[in-house]
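New to this. Help decode the following:
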Amino acid sequence: MNENRFRWRNRQLREHASIIDGKQAPTKVIKHATYLNVYMKQWMEGNIWIDLDRIVYVGKEMPGNIQGTDIIDAEDQYIVPGYIEPHSHPFQLYNPQSLGLYAAKTGTTTLINDNLMWLFLLDEKKAFSLLEEFVELPCSMFWWGRYDSQSVLQETDQEEFSEKVMPWLNHDAVIQGGELTSWPEVMKGDDQTLYWMQETTRLRKPVEGHLPGASEKTLTKMRLLGVDSDHEAITADEVLKRLALGYNVGLRNSSIRPDLYDMLKELVDRGHTQFDHFMMTTDGSTPSFYEQGIMDTCVELAIEAGVPVVDAYLMASYHAARHFGIEHRVGSIAPGRTAHLNFLRAPDDPNPHSVLAKGEWVKRNGEAITTDKKIDFPAFGVTPLRLDWDLQEEDLQFSMPLGIKMTSAVILQPYAVSIDASAEKLSEENDESFLMLLDRDGEWRVNTILKGFTNKLGALISSYSNTGDIVMIGKSKHDMRIAFDRMKEMGGGIVLTHEGEIIFEMPLKLGGVMSDEKMEQVMAKEKELRKHMESFGYRHEDPVYTLLFLSSVHLPYIRITPVGILDIKKKEVLFPAIMR
C-alpha cells in the first residue's frame, strides 16, 4: 500500500469489507475501549477492529471471525487518535527518519514536513524516490512544497531552486504550499510566487503563511492573495486577529518560541471558547527540546491552560487533518482511517503509555519497541559531505567596516566594526569573532565580524546551515583552520576547537546537515554542544538556531547570505560575496 497515493488496493478494500461480514478475521481487536470520537466531541465505549494498518470498524459489536486475531483488552484505558505535528522541520541535526520514529513513540504518529533540505541536496528524481521510502515507516509522513529558500541565492542556484517548485507542489506526498517567508515580495508584486500560490489552491492544497507581526491590513491582503494558515502569532490578540479573518491558526511551543501556554491561558481567561480552527506545533525545535515529548506536551500545556480536554486533543489531531484535507486518512478513530492510536491512563493525561502506529506497536506498557525498518539514505544520494577544495590563507581576511551584532539567538543588527580584524587572533576582552559563510562548492565566500556569539572560543565550523553552506565563527584563525580540516575529514558536521585542540565534534553524515544517529544520541550531542557554547560565553536561547538562521532573510535586520551581507528591509546587498 502506497500511503502517499491515498489509497489501499482494491483487493485490500474488499478484504476489509469482508471482515464486517465475518468472512475474514481482523488482525487486532481492541475491546472495552473508551475512545474519543472527534466528530461527536465525546468519549464513547465500544470495540475497535483493525486489519494490519487500517481501522475497519468502531462500535459495540465484536467480529464474527476472530481466528488468529490479537485481542487487546483496553478496560480502564482511554484511546485518542494519534497526534499530528502540522509544521515539522525534520532537519534540525536529526533527520526525518529519526524524528519520525521518535515522534511515534511519544504519540505523534503523523508529521507534515518541510522539504527545504531536499531542495538543496537532491534532484527531483532522487528526492521523490526517497519520499516513497518514508511510506514504509510506522508513522505517516507528508511534506510541504516550498516557494522560496529563506535566503538569497546565487543566480544559477536560484534558477535551479525555482524549477523544482511546481514538481514538488504536484507530488501526492506534498499536501501544502509554503511556508511563505517571502510574503513581502508577494505584496510588492512577485507574480511568480503568486502564481505558485494560485496553483497550490487549484490543486486543493492549503497555503501556509509566515507572517510575524503582520498588521490587520497585511493579514487581510495575504488572505486575499491565498494564504490559508499562519503560525506566527505570539500574543492572544494576534491569534484572535488571524482567527477573525478566517485563518487556521497554528499555536507554537518551540525551543525559541514557547508561546503556546501563555496564549491559550490568556484566551481562556478572556472567556474564549472557540478552538475549532486552532492547531499546535513545535515548529522544528532543536533535539533536546523533545526529551519530554512532542505533541503530547502541547496537549498537556493546553489542558493546563484551561482548554477543554476534548478540544485540546482535537487541536493536536483532527483539526490538522481537516485543514490539510487528509481527515479521511488520519486524525480520528473511525472506519477507514489509518490505525494510529494512543492509549492513555486518564482523559487528562495525554502522554501515552502505549502507541499503535499504522497498526503496529511502537510503544507498549511504557516500553518503546524498536522497528527494523531503516532508510538507506546514501542509496538516494544523501551521503557525507565531500569537499574537493581546501581553505586558503586569503580566505581568512576579515577587514570589513560593517559587522553583525546578535540581539538574540536569531535577531541580527548591523554595527560598525572598530577592532583590528587583521590580527591572527581576536582579544578575549570583547565578544567579537570572525564570521565567514563559505560556499560548499568552494566558489564564493562572505566575511565579516560577528558580535555577541562568544568571548573566547577559538573556532566553530558547521556544515549545518539554512542553505547547506559552511559557517565559520571564532576568535582564532589557526583554530578555524584546524576545525575546517576536521569537518572536511569527517564528511560534514559541527566542530569546536580551542587553543589548537578539538574539544567537540558532531558528525552530520547525511549531506553535512543531518545526523544518521538515533534521536536520543542526537539529543545528547546537542546538549553537549550547548554546554560547551555556554562555557565560552554564548548567552542566547539556542546556538543551533543561530547557526541555522544566520543566512535566513525572513528575520530582521541584516543577514550573511550567499550573495553577500544583506539589508533585509531594503533588500540591498551591502557587501557582495567574494568569488574564490
About this structure: The longest strand covers residues 28-37. The chain has a mean pLDDT of 96. The chain has 16 helices and 29 strands.
